[in-house]
Amino acid sequence: MAFGDYPAEYNPKVHGPYDPARYYGKADVPLGQVKVGEIGAWLSRRNKSPQAIAGAFSRAWWRWQHKYVQPKRSGVAPFFQVTVAAMTFFYAINYGKMRHHRNYKYH
Amino acid sequence: MLSRTALLSVQRPLGVLAMRSASAAGSGDQVARRERPEHPGKVRLGFIPEEWFQFFYNKTGVTGPYTFGVGLLTYLCSKEIYVMEHEYYSGLSLAIMAIVAVKKLGPTIAAWTDKEIDKIENEWKSGREEELQNLSDAIEAEKKEQWRAEGALLLMDAKKENIALQLEAAFRERAMNVYTEVKRRLDYQVECRHIERRINQKHMVNWIVNNVLGSITPQQEKETLDKCIADLSALALRTK
């Protein structure tokens, strides 16, 4: 499967038009309903190949897009959300440097 | 060689068309095309999704998420996991300016962009609606033309009736003519017979009278006259 192809499980005759936010594989228990003891089994059922991880990121991006950016009358929320997400991400990867800018020695 | 490639390139699009039409015919069952929502998901404080607040609501009520946020921030700041160094203060001033700008200019910009969106949507819609209107008008005009054509058939029937009436009138007129002519001729014949009889009668009477008058000899006349005088004198004697 090359870059830009549809997922292997997508069938236009069955699923209709392609929805990038939808998972076309075998239906599994949603993460919000998995019991704590079953998390290991649930994780083992997941597909952990690079394509699947990229697919997961892509679906998450499209779910966010569909909900906050693509509606007809979207507001300023996606700009703030992108700003806050970028702030936290860059703070996290620069944390090693930020540690040394602490003002107090003892907390 | 070029003609063969031309043939192949012509064949392939037809195959694609057939597949696309088949898939379009079959795909309508499962899931319809995703609809574009009118408004985005609800957010609080400008960027936090409402669902995160709902997630806390059952266990901690309305103030739960705010308490959680304040507690988290306090922990991060006090343990200096979130260091408030010089960049933090410039970020803070930028955040305040952004919030003021959004609060002040937000509603006006929102109203203006809403109008633009409505304009674009109406442009697209109006083209389609106009086309539908034109087509339905054409259908109405077509129906009217059909009705007119039916009217033409009625006109034909009326003309036929008209001609039939005229023929009837002419026939009656001629029948009348025939009657009067025949009556005239018959009357003439009747008159002829009358005249003939009258003339015969008159001629016969004249002839008889003339013969009788001619057959009266002078001897007979004298005798008749004497007799009449004798009768008269007898009468005179009687009445005296």
How would a crystallographer describe the biggest sheet of chain A?
A: none
Low-confidence stretches of chain A: none
Strand order of the biggest β-sheet of chain B: 1-2
Q: What is the CA-atom radius of gyration of chain A, in angstroms?
A: 19 Å
Q: Termini separation of chain A (Å)?
A: 53 Å
Helix fraction bin of chain B: over 70%
What distance lies between the first and last C-alpha atoms of chain B, to the nearest angstrom? Answer: 169 Å
Structural class of chain A: mainly alpha
In total, the number of domains of chain A comes to: 1
| Count of DSSP H/I helices of chain A | 5
Radius of gyration of chain B: 66 Å
Summarize the structure.
With 107 residues, chain A is mainly α.
Structural overview:
The complex is a heterodimer of chains A (107) and B (240). Chain A is mainly α. Chain A has one domain (12-101). In chain A, 49% of the residues lie in helices and 0% in strands. Chain A has helices at residues 12-15, 39-45, 50-69, 77-93, 95-98. The longest helix of chain A is centred in the middle third of the chain and has 20 residues, at 50-69. The termini of chain A are far apart. In chain A, 2% of the residues are buried. The mean pLDDT of chain A is 88. In chain B, strands 1-2 form a two-stranded antiparallel ribbon. Chain B has helices at 2-27, 50-60, 64-78, 86-215, 218-239, and strands spanning 43-44, 48-49. Helices cover 85% and strands 2% of the residues of chain B. Chain B is mostly helical and 240 residues long. The model of chain B is unreliable at 13-28 (pLDDT under 50). Chain B is rod-shaped and about 200 Å long. Chains A and B meet through helix 1, helix 3 and helix 4 of A and helix 1 and helix 4 of B.
